[in-house]
Specification:
The structure is a homodimer. Chain A is α/β, with parallel strands linked by helices. The first copy, chain A, folds into two domains: 239 residues, Aldehyde Dehydrogenase, Chain A, domain 1 (3-Layer(aba) Sandwich), CATH 3.40.605.10; 146 residues, Aldehyde Dehydrogenase, Chain A, domain 2 (3-Layer(aba) Sandwich), CATH 3.40.309. Helices cover 42% and strands 21% of the residues of chain A. In chain A, a hairpin with a 7-residue loop joins strand 14 and strand 15. In chain A, helix 4 runs antiparallel to helix 8 and helix 11 packs across helix 12. At the A-B interface, strand 2, helix 11, helix 15, strand 13 and strand 16 of A face strand 2, helix 11, helix 15, strand 13 and strand 16 of B.
Chain lengths: 444, 444
């Protein structure tokens, strides 16, 4: 058992969460300068500890290689686990990058004079304690630890057991670096390592404010089902590209190909192509040929197959329309037009990201208003749905929820707000009796 | 069985929710003018239907009077149920007021040029379908129906059975008025009436985006426990007033009295008074005398009793510190200072609203940063925590959640946002290969 995991086992997750809550109260009082200095110290510690991180990772990779050989782990999982020298340098660079982002705390979101001498401010502040459950990739540790520190939150982390040594080394380096910063509690980042710990974590409503599961759909569903703590994440990414009758077919071809082929394993890749019947004959044969060249297996509706009969397209089943392939497979359906496309997407989509290819601004506007998704795009690949590409500087994950954070979540996803009211002995009774009246004057 | 309830029973709640989802798609496309016209039509219909509403309410009140006589219902519950002529006029006026509020939809929350010809907007939009479960007061129907319509959301409403006739009349009048507005689906407001319907509702994750329970702590906990749909509300309001050593004692006395006495039955009334030991002797005797004059029962810590021995103060138990009395009862504790006050509040408070009375700006700043609550006040009564007093124009409820909406919720609580991305055939591959670079230029 590793060092921090042993600490958790001895104290129990509830005690660790309570200490994290106490740490979060301290974090909330730190200035932006103090938080950024701590981030830079952590970045330096990571860079300096390269050998230790690589050695720990080598231990994990050796065990994983045996697991792959025994058919108990997939090769891509091993690939995600592996960290090299460049990876360590990137981790440190990312932490430094987070230090350079604007401060998410203390932002004045609204200011109103309620009456003379009675002023209300709405100000951003940390959530408090955040639990993050993730799989495989060790670089998640410095990534989420830096976002949490930047936003003044304490963290309970649970990584996959396959990365136990790597995660342990990273958390331990992080804690040591923070221990050297005045006023900063080491316990602001804590590592859990067993599934039993996760179950304990999910029950700690009073001391954990948010859980973010990052990983498989099964993981996200398990967490959501077993906790009353708010959960943000996405179970599925069933994204569509709809090629409208008014599409520029060259753009349509480029966007569709990119959305499917550029990186098919991720949630913002397209799973289904919808094609307006008015341009299907002009568009589909060439598109299908290009996709097949890219190694894409196509499953089509009967009309698609009839239109491109020699392409060896399999018949799509009802299940195909609600399947996230995460692979070089694309389902294709010819629809009667915009209305049918919107209806199909609202029925089968996962509300993640949806794209229309059209030169018709009105069709685009209708698509964007009526499609119920975090991202609605015109003439752009669904693959743009990402915190870095959106310019957030960092991504915590992607949320399919409509509440709090929707779509790619940046630092803002780790903040909430409070109302600060400054008075001079003001009481409600005078207003209730009509002796005083509110001014409700917006300030600035 | 009333008319709309019968419709629900025949179709099933799932079918009603599906129709509400369809209605929500139409609502999302309506202009602000169309929504406001519909609100004015509904307000007029309510005013014109005064006799019908009063007659339905009389039926409910007659049954409630028997229930009160038989000891099966409390007198305050009957009082909340009763609607008079002035009440109907107020309902209509409130709906007109909501029509006059700024449009919460289509607000541009951010705009960024990602690259030349690739522009990202973050825009507010409706949540979709909202379920509201409430008790007793029939005026909740037009209140939440108007907020939902203003924000483009469809509604599933469940009122208490004691108000069945009143609610049925109000929903039916509302639906008839909407039926006369072009493009507006009558089914955007739906009434459920049995507890079985509520249980069905709580399972409809796909077609219901948010549940707001308004009522007893038991109701809120029942809803939260039985649903995976996001829930916003507050189970408890355990609010504190802390009188600091640097307090102006006259302000302290006024704020404390108002926070406890002005309306003790509501969630933003104070339940516990914390007093800095440095000013306890100067402050408490007079404060206790005034509270007792106001009919307040006091439960104190041993030091409080020792300080005011002749006031008949009962000894507060551990349970008192976490009890929401909702009545003319106040627990009082002498603490060693600011740190102890903050610790007590973070331990026992319900994160609703907390007030410090002090002339020391630094103490107030620390209190506001370190106390974990939706509202943190200086020199003002906790009773100000309210959507109308905050200037939101309308209140949907108060949230103790830190996610999405915190504190008094106005129209904004019924909206989410989407990311709209406008491109010109942009694909991710070029950026991944380094052939293109993002500009990430904030617009406006």
């Amino acid at each position: 058992m590793t060092q921090t995991a042993q600490l958790v086992s001895e104290a129990g997750v509830a005690a660790v969460a309570r200490r994290a809550r106490e740490a979060s109260r301290v974090l909330a009082t730190l200035s932006a300068e103090a938080r950024n200095e701590a981030l830079l110290a952590a970045a330096e510690a990571i860079a300096e500890s390269k050998e230790r991180i690589l050695a720990a990772n080598a231990l994990d990779c050796r065990a994983a290689e045996s697991a792959v050989a025994a058919g108990k782990m997939s090769a891509p999982m091993l690939a995600r686990l592996r960290v090299n020298e460049r990876g360590v340098a990137q981790m440190a660079a990312q932490v430094r990058g987070v230090a350079g982002l604007p401060d998410p705390l203390g932002r004045r979101l609204a200011a109103t004079e309620l009456d003379h001498g009675l002023v209300l401010y709405k100000e951003s502040c940390p959530l408090g304690v955040v639990g993050i459950v993730f799989e495989s990739r060790p670089e998640v540790v410095p990534q989420v630890a830096s976002l949490a520190l930047k936003s003044g939150n304490a963290l309970l982390l649970k990584g996959g057991s396959e990365a136990a040594h790597s995660n342990e080394a990273l958390v331990s380096i992080w804690r040591d670096a923070l221990g050297r910063c005045p006023g900063l509690a080491q316990v602001s980042v804590n590592l859990l390592q067993t599934r039993a710990h996760v179950l304990e974590l999910l029950a700690l409503e009073r001391d954990v404010d948010l859980i973010i599961p990052r990983g498989s759909r099964e993981l996200v569903e398990f967490v959501a089902k077993n906790s009353r703590i708010p959960v943000l994440g996405h179970g599925e990414g069933i994204c569509h590209v709809y090629v409208d009758r008014a599409a520029d077919l060259q753009k349509a071809c480029g966007v569709t190909y990119d959305a499917k082929v550029q990186y098919p394993a991720v949630c913002n890749a397209a799973e289904t192509l919808l094609v307006d019947e008015a341009i299907a004959a002009a568009f589909l044969p060439e598109m299908v040929a290009k996709l097949k060249q890219g190694g894409v297996e196509i499953r089509g509706c009967p009309r698609t197959i009839a239109l491109v009969p020699d392409a060896g397209i399999a018949l799509a089943t009802e299940e195909d329309w609600s399947t996230e392939y995460s692979d070089l497979i694309l389902s294709v359906k010819i629809v009667s037009g915009l209305d049918a496309a919107i209806e199909h997407i609202n029925r089968y989509g996962s509300r993640h990201t949806e794209s229309i290819v059209t030169e018709d601004a009105e069709a685009a506007a209708r698509f964007m208003t009526e499609v119920d998704a975090a991202g609605v795009f015109q003439n752009a690949s669904t693959r743009f749905a990402d915190g870095y590409r959106y310019g957030f500087g960092a991504e915590l994950g992607i949320s399919n929820s409509k509440l709090h954070a929707r779509g790619p979540m940046g630092l803002e996803g780790l903040t909430t707000y409070k109302f600060k009211l400054f008075g001079n002995g003001h009481t409600v009774a005078e207003y209730a009796k009509g002796e005083k009246k509110f001014t409700h004057r917006p300030l600035q």
